[in-house]
Write a structure and sequence with these properties.
The complex is a heterodimer of chains A (about 90) and B (about 575). Chain A is built from three helices and four strands; from the N terminus they run E-H-E-E-H-E-H. Chain A is an alpha+beta fold and about 90 residues long. Chain B is of the alpha/beta class. Classes of the chains: A alpha+beta (about 90), B alpha/beta (about 575).
Chain lengths: ~90, ~575
């Protein structure tokens, strides 16, 4: 089952180290695979390297596509994290 | 055994184990391997990743303790990055499919990421490319089998091998444990060179990729006097240098004793030996070496070290520091000589097609009067603190000198109106470093009260050779008869006038040229502080009569080779006469 959701990066510094680590931490706790899109770039949501290369700055639209049994819960958890501004706002 | 030639930036000989500091980029040969080596390379990669992870994890813990979470998070991210299976996968793919070495494959993967990052617009994220460099260096160091080189844990004397030494690094070094520097980049006047001379540590610079040629722990010989580095020397070479080291120490002791002796030839002619300096801190060092004054204070570093033009106060403070250290001794401040190879960050980045012949030095100043006037104000204000003299560089026409003097007069008027004190009769001189200025020296002596012959540029412009260009650098010789003829011309033009003439190029500090220069009539030489004792030794061992004979003989030669051979013979003859 595929679940897709789009969020806007709300924190000023965008997806930098701390947010990426929080993001990847959550992604790795679920079974489902996760691809994250930003503009024409795509990253494996569990790869800190690829997430950094996504260059998702403040205000960027990020589309998450999860695939697997717990896809819904995974995307919910990540949307919460992003919307909370990674605890930086 | 590998021998490399670089620039001799700080004299002395050191022998000891190398410690290789992080370089901006490792030089990794593009190398493919035999397919049977693939598992071995993958094993190397995994071992390096594991070791790097361990290292970063320790750093993270230390950073959390000492520097707080903000720094720790950086290392936490590095750790995750290094452990990222995607990273390992892409490197392994290159090893397996293209048969790259682990180092080359890893470098390729990181380079690609770095390249993508350079196009990022967001300034914060763009900065993260530095983290990628850091990660790359760390892992490569492990793949290439370099031990971790931690400067704070130095416990035995070492030779520092690095791409560059930053001033902040230099102050953190423990002087007792540093034997020498062997550095990829830099020249005589780079920060590293100045620092090394200040610390009295032998240094060879501009060794291009010495960091790639030397492994940590390897035995090195650094011959800072001749600009030579030998890695893994054989026993014969080692013995030769050990003897040289002893000899150098003996010589150094003797030269130190020379400091308080006058620079007078054996037939009683006093020679004024002055110092060239780059930063105020060097003033003190200059007098330690026995300088009678500062013959050339190059002001460029003030402009090159910061992103904006230095303020009047900043300049004034620097000039004042030199004046205070000099006391009653003369100080010649050269107005800023930017352009060509010395571009200040704040200068408009207009690339001249041919920078040595372009908008540089005084030409630049006369076109940017706002900046020039601030500079002149700072110099004039410092003039009340001692015997300050002002010198304009890169003059080609009399008009330029007059323009510069007119600007100075304007600034004096401003200071007058504001009631700011300065020395109205400040001596005004000029550099003679273009053939045009040398040929018309007779005209310039009516406009300037002192001349200083800059043989580095004079040679470049006379012989049309850029010595920074390695393909023609061998054609650069200040002892070329054409250059010597110009020098002679300038000295002759000052005869019978109250105009002082000085020579301040590198030639002034090279013992082999000393008798010739005295023979050409020069009585003032300005050089790097470290060169003063050995020049004084020559002066005290010779007579003007002999020097004049040498100059007469040299004037009959028509090739630089003849000149050099003759001077070498003379140098050998002069040594036994010394009475120290």
């Amino acid at each position: 089952m595929a679940v897709e959701r789009e969020v806007v990066i709300p924190n000023k510094e965008g997806l930098h180290f701390r947010p990426i680590m929080q993001f990847v931490d959550i992604a790795q706790r679920f079974q489902s695979g996760l691809t994250v899109h930003c503009a024409d770039r795509a990253a494996d949501g569990r790869s800190p390297m690829e997430m950094l290369m996504l260059v998702a700055t403040h205000g960027a639209r990020v589309r998450m596509v999860a695939n697997g049994a717990d896809a819904e819960q995974l995307v919910d958890a990540l949307v919460n994290l992003v919307q909370s501004g990674f605890g930086e706002m | 055994m590998i021998t490399k030639k670089g620039i001799n930036a700080s004299p002395g000989v050191a022998i000891g184990p190398a410690i290789v500091l992080d370089t901006e980029e490792y030089r990794i040969p593009h190398r493919t391997i035999d397919p049977v080596q693939v598992p071995g390379q993958i094993h190397n990669l995994d071992a390096a990743l594991a070791a790097s992870r361990q290292e970063v994890s320790e750093l993270r813990a230390a950073a959390a303790r000492k520097l707080g979470d903000k720094t720790a998070v950086i290392f936490a991210f590095h750790e995750q990055f290094i452990c990222d299976p995607k990273l390992r996968d892409s490197v392994v793919a290159l090893i397996e499919r293209r048969h790259y070495t682990a180092a080359y494959a890893f470098g390729q993967v990181l380079n690609e990421r770095q390249r993508q990052f350079r196009n990022v617009a967001d300034p914060y994220l763009k900065e993260r490319v530095r983290d990628l460099y850091d990660i790359e260096r760390r892992v490569l160091r492990h793949i290439l089998g370099r031990a971790r080189e931690d400067m704070t844990r130095l416990s035995e004397p070492v030779i520092i091998v690095a791409n560059e030494i930053t001033p902040s690094q230099a102050i953190s070094f423990d002087r007792r444990h540093i034997l020498a520097f062997a550095i990829n980049v830099g020249g005589q006047t780079s920060h590293t060179a100045i620092i090394a001379r200040m610390l009295g540590i032998p240094a060879v610079l501009a060794l291009s990729d010495i960091t790639a040629d030397v492994a940590g722990g390897e035995t090195l010989i650094v011959d800072g006097t001749n600009g030579i580095v030998v890695a893994s020397p054989d026993s014969e070479t080692l013995e030769r240098y050990r003897a040289q080291q002893r000899e150098y120490r003996r010589l150094e002791d003797r030269l130190r004793r020379l400091r308080d002796e006058p620079a007078v030839t054996r037939d009683g002619v006093p020679i004024e030996l002055l110092a060239n300096i780059e930063v105020p801190e060097e003033t003190h060092e200059a007098f330690e070496y026995g300088a009678e004054g500062i013959g050339l204070y190059r002001t460029e570093l003030l402009f090159l070290s910061s992103a904006r033009m230095p303020t009047e106060e900043e300049q004034y403070e620097a000039f004042l520091e030199v004046m205070r250290a000099a006391g009653p001794r003369p100080v010649v401040i050269r107005t800023v000589d930017l352009g060509a190879d010395k571009l200040a960050p704040a200068m408009e980045a207009q690339r001249d097609h041919n920078p040595a012949l372009g908008l540089r030095s005084l030409r630049y100043c006369l076109l940017h009067l706002d900046m020039f006037r601030v500079h002149l104000r700072a110099i004039l204000r410092a003039s009340t603190a001692g015997d300050l003299r002002i010198m304009f560089p890169m003059i080609t026409t009399v008009m330029e000198l007059r323009q510069a003097k007119a600007t100075l007069a304007d600034v004096m008027e401003d200071l007058d109106e504001e009631g700011i004190p300065f020395r109205r009769d400040i001596p005004i001189g000029m550099m003679v470093e273009t053939p045009a200025a040398a040929l018309l020296a007779a005209a310039f002596v009516r406009e300037a009260v002192f001349l200083s012959i800059g043989t580095n540029d004079l040679t470049q412009y006379t012989l049309a050779v850029d010595r920074g260009n390695e393909r023609v650098a061998h054609l650069f010789s200040s002892h070329n008869p054409a250059v010597l003829k110009l020098v002679h011309e300038v000295v002759r033009a000052t005869r019978g006038r109250k105009v002082q003439v000085n020579l301040c190029g590198e030639m002034a500090g090279a013992p082999i040229y000393c008798p010739l220069l005295l023979g050409l009539g020069l009585r003032r030489l300005s050089m790097a502080p470290k060169d003063i004792p050995s020049i004084k030794r020559i002066v005290r061992a010779t007579t003007i009569e002999r020097c004049q004979m040498i100059a007469r003989k040299v004037s009959r030669f028509d090739s630089d080779r003849q000149v050099l051979n003759f001077l070498r013979g003379e140098a050998r003859a002069i040594e036994p006469e010394e009475d120290l």
